[in-house]
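INFO  loader      accepted 1 record
INFO  loader      residues=1259
INFO  predictor   begin
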Amino acid sequence: MAVYLKSLTAVGFKSFSERISLVFQPGVTAIVGPNGCGKSNIVDAVRWVLGEQSAKALRGEEMADVIFNGTEKRPKMGFAEVSLTIEGVDEAQLRAAGIELPYREVTITRRVFRDGGSEYFINKTPCRLKDVQQLFMGTGVGRASYSIMAQGNMTQILSSKPEERRMVFEEAAGITRFKAQKREALRKLENTEQNLLRVDDVIREVKRQIISLQRQAGKARRFKQYEAELKHLETQLARHQFDVLRAETCQCEEKLETVRTNLENCGLEVSRVEQQVGGLRQQLSALDSEIAQARQRELELKGECEQHENRIKFNEELLSELATQDARFLTEIAEAEQRRLETEQELGALGERIRESASRLAELRDEMKKRSAVVGDIETALRKCQEELSGAQDREFSAAQQLTRIRNEASALDFQKQANLVRLEKLSAEKIQLEEERLRLEQRLKGFEQESDLHTQNAESQRIELARRQEALKKVQQELQDVSRELESLQRLQAEQHSKLGVLRQLEEGHEGFGAAAQALLKSAPGLLGTLVEHLHVSNEHVPAVEGALGHHLQLILTDEPTRACTILAELAANQTGSASIASLGLRNGAPTEQISAELAQRLGTMGAQPVLDLIHADDLVRPLVASLLGRTYLVPDLDTATRAWSECNGTADFVTRNGEHLSRHGIYSGGHAPREGASPSSVLARKNLIAAIENELAALQEKVEAISRRKGALQSEQTALVAGLQEVQNGLRAQEVAMATRQGELNALQNAMRVLNQKIDTVVFEIQSLATQQREAEDRRTTLTSEIAECEAAEAETRQQLQACQAEVERLRHERDTANAALTEIKVALASQEQVCASLRNQQRPLEQRLGELRDTVAQRQRDRAAAMQRKGRAETEINESRIRLESLAQDRALSARKLADLLAARDRQSAELSAREDNLGAIRRRMSELQEERSKLEVELAQRQMSIRNLLDNIMQRYQVDLNEVRSECITITFADEGPAKVVVLTPEEMQAAGVSTDWDAVAAQIAALRKKMDEMGPVNLVAITEYEEIEQRYQMLAEQRDDLVRARAQLLEAINRVNAQTRTMFVETFERIRENFRNLFVEVFGGGKADLCLVDENDVLESGVEIVACPPGKQLKSISLLSGGEQTMTAVALLFAIYQVRPSPFCILDELDGPLDEANIKRFVHILKRFVQQSQFIIITHNKQTIAMADVLYGITMEERGVSKIVSVKFRKTGELEGNRPTEYLNGTTEAVATEAGDEAGAGINGEPTALAIAD
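INFO  predictor   done
INFO  writer      dumping tokens
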């Protein structure tokens, strides 16, 4: 046999708490044991390791129920594991499971944990459940295949639906692997169709995005060009400012270094003096330590004197106590010696009595041995006679059983003959009735076919109406999709504006653009009236001019009282938190405002100058302050005009241009880059205007959103109405199709009924022929049985005479055995009495010996105690003398210690005076050092300010451009402005600039930066990622096109594969089904001794999905359904079907779980007979209670439950009777041996779980 089940190992599975291992051999293995001991758990283990996923199929509620749940003595386990080893697996099966190595032996392992985790292994390599299933597909092995059959499984196959019954035949045909491939191909085909639809949708969307991104990418490239030029110019300008600040920082650092040098010198002087002071303090500390030591020494000497005095007193008391103990020890020694002499005399007398008792005990034992030998001889003779009696009884029982069997068979033949005659009459009448029924069915079939055509026409008209409504719904959905996209675009723009507005409001609330000190005051200082700019209102076009005119006054903080302003500035100075400008409005109330004369104002007006106050709308609260600040300030077109106007008024007014360039009345020009009008959120004046503009834009967007939302709602209502109408048509069509399907089902049912009716007619004809054959065979058998009955009656009489003679001999031997046992019992009683006497004497001897030893030990111990006391007395006298000598010496030491302490106290007073003088000098030096530190702090603050400016410049460039100014090389830049077109920027090295005799005009650089910013702002929103997005979307389009081509090819390949699988499985199934059908017919007749059975497809036009009907009629019965068969008949029908499948495709192994349970003795013989025919083709593991089934097993496993809830395995390998000569031991499969038992019950050989088991099987 190529493939067979080699072993099964389980641990923690159900009742197997310990690891068990079952080793199987080719042939038949029987598993026996009482009910409830865990036999069926072995079947569950095999089914589970092969991939069973249903806990109910394993007789549980959830998968964790298969884990050993503990007993009263054992804790529950955390996992269950089962391993199944298969021998002889071929490479094709291994490749199907994803294993490339050519294993001949494969071990499948499954492990489950209580947390729900599950693992599968093939040869200890982790794998999937699918791999395990692929390994056995088409072999007949599997969790639900015909290789595992329990008592209810085969009958369930008979009673299940035809479609469910088909699975067994598919497994036998070997097409389960192809069916799985087909299901996988159909799943892939469905996924491919869905993917193809999605790819088409994505391609359409990508095409639309490409058109939009092309325009955005061009705009983004121009923006990035401007951005690169702006980055270069701004980094160069920042580098120039960085170099200036760094030079100023170097000067400040030189001054700071000088102060630090002076401070360091002072520090050295302080350190020198501190070291001197520290030395004096150490000397003083050393004196204090010596004084403390001297005082401690004095205390120690005093304590030692007291210690020696106490020791003398203690030793004197000890000498008195030792004298008392010595007298007591002498008395105890004398008393113990007297008791020892008395105990020795008592032991001598007891020894003589023990020797006399032992002599009597030996005589009684000799007598008992003689009488035991007599009883043994009688027992041997009796046992031999009983064996002869047992053999005679077996022969008498066998003869009676054989006679009864033959008589029963003869009676059964007579009864069967009468029954067959009755059956023939019924079958003839039934045949006529069936033919009439066939005529009625043919007429009904014609009517149903006409109605089916009418339903088909109605359904076609409804499909046309459905298509029309679907087209209308598609148009509305397209319009709704366009409106939704427009609404999403507006809502996205609305969200962006809300985001901008939120940022601007945060900047406004945080007073962005003000200094750190001003921001802190506005947040926390009480009594402030806000800032000046909060009370000013300026149009966007005049914002740069007003900001240039106000200058640093833009950051003015308002308060009402001068004292409050002074208090705030004092706090800033004290806390060193920065500086701020505060305007006290109380000082301006009633104060005159300087005004330019009307004549001068007229002249300035002719030059294009306009008062800045005319451009500002100020609140009443700050109007006097604004008039004071800007009353003599004018707006002019440019700086040239400002210069002429300044000369005209002799420097009595300030002038500002629209770009914010400023010429003060002191002749100071200021200006540079300014952002586009109203565009910079950091502009404190323009920010308010920008907030208002965004709020207006949001209001307009909201109106558009509401209008489009209303249009979307109308379209959704229209869509809902169309969907409802479409649903109505679909429901009508579905109802029509259901009616068609119902009619078609009824038509199919009639056709199936016609087919079944024809099969019944064939069955009746076949059974009539079979009954005639049975009648002839029964007559021949009845003649043979008559002669066998006479022979059996003679043999029974002879056996009965032999039995009576054996019974008489057994009674005689039993009487002799009872007499000999009575005499033996008397001797045993006398022997036991003498043994008790002897034991009593020995028990008295042991206490006396123990007491004698204790007395000897007492004498020795008291002598040792007395010697120890004498030694302690000598030591005490010695210690008294030593302590008295030491006390004299300690008195002299105490006098010397007192003199030394007085000298140390005088030296300490002198050292303290010198330390005080040195500490006064150290205080003067430290005051000088404090003055230098204050000067250093001022310089460090100044240096920190310069460094802060440098860091701000570095951070600004780093944040904006991620460029480190330290790594930027200074370049010389010349800018040429043209009348038309962009300015020309030329970059030269410093050497080239020096050779040309020109220098960088940094004002021109700032102007070019402003121009670039203006261009970038005019471009509006720019999608900078559009370039990358366009390239990516183009690549994505190409990739999607390739994917679509791949999907189209894959769909064609899958359809071809499905058609190929269908053709192959159809051929394999039909061929296998016909072979099983023919085998089933023959085996059914053989099993039942007649009758008729057949298999047929429910729908022969659909071979790939049609269910399988089973027709079974035992002899003498005419049943309309196989469910009406008795339990035994169903089992035998199932056996016939099982082995009909095995004749076509035998499974490598087959597990039968109590399949023979419902069978009687006659059917058991048929079952065993058929089973023997297939032993060479397959391996059988049978769970059974039947002795006949056990008798044919090659290996026997017993399941026991010695401990409640825990199953245990006992294994035996059978040998034939001829192999048992010499009583050689039987070898167990687990490697142990035991003597062979016979079928004599509990007296001769113990069975399994108390059941007698035949371990030696006769041929």
